[in-house]
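REVIEWER CHECKLIST
Item 1: Sequence provided? yes
Item 2: Single chain? yes
Item 3: Sequence as submitted:
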Amino acid sequence: MFDIRPIVLVVGILLVTLGIAMLLPALYDAAVSNPDWKVFLASAVVTSFFGVSMALMTWGSAGTMTLKQAFVLVPAVWVALVTFGALPFLFSELQLSITDAFFESMSGITTTGSTVISGLDTTPPGLLLWRSLLQWLGGIGIIVMAVSILPILQVGGMQMFKVEAFDTPEKVLPSAAALAGSITVVYVSFTVLAAIALWAAGMSFFDGINHAMTTIATGGYSTRDASVGAFDSGLIHYIITAGMIFGSLPFVLYIQALRGKASPLFRDTQVQTFIGIILVATAAMVTYQMLQQPGVDVEERLRASIFNVVSILTGTGYATEDYGSWGPFASIVFFTLMFIGGCSGSTSCGLKIFRVQVITAVALSHLRRMIYPHGVFIPKYNRRAIPENVSASVMSFFFLFIACFGTLALLLTFTGLDPVTALSAAATSIANVGPGLGAEVGPSGNFAGLPDAAKWLMSLGMLLGRLELFTVLILLSPVFWRS
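Item 4: Structure as written out by the authors:
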């Protein structure tokens, strides 16, 4: 019989953590005399009650986790956190519907950044802080999952990044807890440094801490309707650009660098390719805009281009201006960048750089075999041969990613969305980017006007994209439950 106790225990512990996190916006609202502090306090009590109850009922059962339980654990954790994370949105003075509250919470914890809340400039500060906390917690959660659980589950080629300490599923939890400590130190340090830099650049304390959390988490929730464009400061834009890049690099390499092994961070082909894409895409955007509008300020175009390129590539979703108005070439480039994402083991999303590299290496190797049938060509990643099971896993993930994107876009058209909005909404949800293209879901738009059915479909898309597809879809297979 399937034993759910280890899953319930982990979910319970994380719900307690979420409940404690709710006290922060409660305290802030109380400090500024906003009545929503009662909502956060009540939500914290309810969330912690369920979390403590679940943990006490199953205490001592975590060491027996199996591979099947690990597969169930991942989506169970995210769905539980999203559900309870929606409580403050549901009962706050904004009075969001169940659909909108769940959508906002899902977008936050999956670090997508799509929002249904308008009037952010006048939204109660506690809710703004809660949105940022959701993305910050979701960011660190996805890093731990990417370096501990997904390699064990062999999801989409992630077995390439298996840590030696995680030899078996039974070792995942204690080993992940040890590694999570080191990741947390790096994660918190980056957040604090980003906040200090933003304060020094002219942001207020509140805006600085919120944007620091959502920058490092590559989430993109802002405290302003105009996003980062509301801050007319080149220095702020460059600081956030750097923060998004730092959040999109492998955190395990940061830990190695702190232990005296900094060379892997610079020699890793995933990092090199990621930086290369940023440079090429930025150069293309600057050149295109200068050709379209001769005489424009080069520094201003460079700043806007690199900021928005990094924001979309990393899946952060910040915007300094409506890049959809830059022209058709820019729209196609940004639509393509949505799918790529950042590095594995980071807070970023999308296909991931390493999968793009593996697909490219396998394709080139196949082309060479067609030209030289008797030649031996071995695809490589990071100067090492790519195992066949990794190639097959990555190819399967890529096919499933495109299939889910197409299916989601088709279903969104059934809800009444036009084809462009449906394609853009499907891309931005499954790639966890945030803003899409077009007037309705673009950088200057808002998702509040979408039909409820579209919001639920997009919430499913966010979950699928954030949890690497297989960990969710495998639960629909009868074979999985019989095996």
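Item 5: Key structural point noted by reviewer: The longest strand covers residues 380-381.
Item 6: Recommendation: ____
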